[in-house]
Design brief:
82% of the residues lie in helices and 0% in strands. By secondary structure, it is mainly α.
Length: 97
């Protein structure tokens, strides 16, 4: 259970470094969808694991977005992602989670 919650938190961090209306906002959109599903699943470990498995390939793709990027480039990605509507909604959703 802690691993699932940890992975959800890791998703938030991952999105900070991974995900703009281009691929960046796409990653943010996927992250928001995952968080919403996890919230709806409550604390059911089986459902949470299924959701994690469902989004694994999407998360892997988003992780690759910052491969080889400098710290400055990563900061720019974070700023770009903060402009995504889905990121703003995810912040609100995570507060309630």
């Amino acid at each position: 259970m802690r691993k699932i919650i940890y992975n959800c938190s890791a998703l938030g961090i991952l999105l900070l470094f991974s995900c703009g209306k281009s691929e960046i906002c796409d990653c943010s959109d996927k992250g928001l969808a995952m968080v919403k599903e996890m919230k709806a699943a409550g604390m059911n470990p089986t459902k949470l694991q299924e959701i994690q498995n469902k989004y694994k390939s999407d998360l892997d793709e988003c992780e690759k977005l910052d491969d080889g990027k400098t710290e400055e480039e990563q900061k720019k990605m974070v700023e770009e992602m903060k402009e995504c509507e889905s990121y703003k909604e995810m912040e609100k959703t995570m507060k309630d989670f």
